[in-house]
Design a protein that fits this description.
The chain is of the alpha/beta class. The chain has helices at 36-51, 67-73, 83-93, 101-115, 127-160, 163-168, 174-182, 186-191, 194-204, 209-219, 228-264; strands spanning 2-9, 14-20, 26-33, 54-60, 77-80. Strands 3-2-1-4-5 form a 5-stranded mixed β-sheet. The longest helix has 37 residues, at 228-264. It starts with a strand and ends in a 13-residue tail after the last helix.
Length: 277
Amino acid sequence: MKRYYIGVDWGDRLHQVYVGDDQGKKVREMKVPETVEGLAEIGRWLDEQRAEGFELWAAIEKPAGRIVDFLLDHGVEVYPVNPKAVDRVRDRYRMSGSKSDAFDAYVLAEFLRTDQAHLKALRPSSEKAQELKMLSRDQRRVVRHKTRLLNQLTTTLKEYYPRPLDAFENIETEVALDFLTCYPTPAHLGALKRKEFNRFATQQHSLSKPRCEELWEKLHKPQLAVPEHVVRAKAQLVEVLVDQLRASIKAVKTYHHKVESFFASSPAVSWPTGPPG
C-alpha cells in the first residue's frame, strides 16, 4: 500500500504540517490555522488521500488542543514522539541544529519514515488513545472556561476600572492578577505611592525598571469618575473573577502538562544522530 509520512508541529494558533512519500520526497507542506475552516481543509485533504488508497502515518510531539483526536478521527495512524528524540536526530538533517516549525515538521516526517521501527503507534481503540482523547477534550473545556472568565473580567474592568487593562495588556498574568487583588479600585490606585508600587513591581514580581516606569505612567492616565455604588459592586465581582481565573489558569496548566507528559513517556531513545544504516 502507498503511504504518506506526516510531520505535525502543532502550535496554539498556527500549525505546520509536512508530508513526504516512501522515498522521502516532499508531497505537500502547509500551514494550518487553528480555525474551523483551517481544520476542515486539512481534514478533507486527509480523507481524499485515504480514498485514493494512501495509508497515512503521522508523527507528533507536544500536542496542543484536539490534534491527536482530530488525526485519529480522520483515519491517520498517530505516532507519539518524545521531544528528546527529535532533539537528538535534528542534526541528522541540518548540522546547525537550528529550529523552526517548518523544519521540525519535516524532521518528524522523515524520522517516522526512517525510524518507524523504534516508534509505537497510538491505536484508536486502545486505553491509552481513549485516555488521551478524553484528556484533550477536557483540556479544551477548561481552556474555554478560562476564556469565558477572562472575557468577563475584561468586560467588568471596562465598566469601572479600565487602567489595569491598558497597563498590563495581558490581564491573566500573575502580576496583573496580583495587582487587581492588592489595588481593586480607582481609589486604591489613587492612594498608591510610587515607592510601594516599585516594591510590588520590582521586588515581588521582578519587573525591570523600564517596565515599572511604563506601568506607572499607564496606570496614572486620567479616567472618568464612576459612581461609588458601581465601584463597590464591580470590585466585588472582580474579586470573585480573579479567584476563579487563578484556579482556571492552574487547571489549564495541569491539563497541558498531562498531555505533554503522555508524549514524554514514550521512549526517549538512544539512537545515533547520523542517518540510519
